[in-house]
Design goal:
By secondary structure, the protein is an all-alpha fold. About 75% of the residues lie in helices and about 0% in strands. The protein contains twelve helices and no strands.
């Protein structure tokens, strides 16, 4: 990887490599990462992946499947840095996904689908960080988000399980957040852990995601006040 990036970065400014072909190859690599990490407009598969058991959903959304696209872009960042069009495209896609995922998450009543769209939004944060060249902040948020989101998915599984004696076995009912009022007396430990995971993802200090989000926001402001304000 290191030798490949060094050669490419030396040749691109000197027209040793066709810039159009290099941009096309970089775009195709980026497109693969967009599909893998559920970024706009290739995000529609992510909520439907919530049909599996909750521990599997936690594994997919926290540490493995969707994180692969972000990690791929992070490894290829030394190549993308020499291609301003690709870097701007990464930032744009990350910003759109960030807002779209958060908006869709607010509109859901299914707890697992809401968490899925939340994952999409947080991956948009990481994509934005990579687009502005903030490699460390993106990977830092990847790790902090993994712990917090795994906690939320496992907590949601406990909540869904505790709903079954009350509403029966029906995904339309036991995953419906509208019907989940007053559950704290049934799952007091889950209530506490779910609250901590939610506060962390919201960026409340001194929890983990606060530090990674703060680094992304500060780097965004230094890169462009436009991204910082957004």
């Amino acid at each position: 990887f290191r030798d490949l990036f060094k050669i490419a970065n030396n040749w691109i400014p000197n027209n040793g490599i066709n810039s159009l072909l290099t941009t096309l190859c970089a775009f195709l690599l980026f497109l693969g990462a967009v599909a893998k990490s559920a970024q706009f407009p290739l995000h529609v598969w992510l909520p439907d992946a919530m049909e599996g058991p909750t521990p599997i959903s936690a594994l997919i959304h926290a540490a493995t499947m969707v994180a692969a696209g972000i990690f791929l872009l992070a490894r290829l960042l030394p190549l993308f840095i020499s291609l301003p069009f690709i870097m701007n495209l990464i930032s744009l896609v990350g910003t759109i996904t960030l807002f779209l995922g958060a908006t869709l998450a607010l509109a859901q009543t299914d707890i697992k689908r809401s968490l899925a769209y939340s994952t999409m939004s947080q991956l948009g944060y990481m994509m934005l960080a990579l687009g502005i060249g903030s490699y460390q902040a993106a990977l830092f948020h990847l790790i902090t988000h993994a712990y917090s989101k795994a906690l939320l998915f496992l907590g949601s599984g406990s909540i869904i399980h505790s709903m079954e004696p009350l509403v029966g076995y029906s995904p339309d009912k036991n995953q419906n957040m509208v019907l989940m009022g007053g559950l704290r007396k049934y799952v007091p430990i889950t209530r506490t852990t779910f609250l901590w995971g939610t506060l962390s993802l919201c960026g409340i200090p001194p929890l983990a995601c606060f530090w990674s989000k703060d680094e992304i926001l500060s780097n965004s402001w230094l890169y462009s006040p436009f991204f910082g304000i957004i």
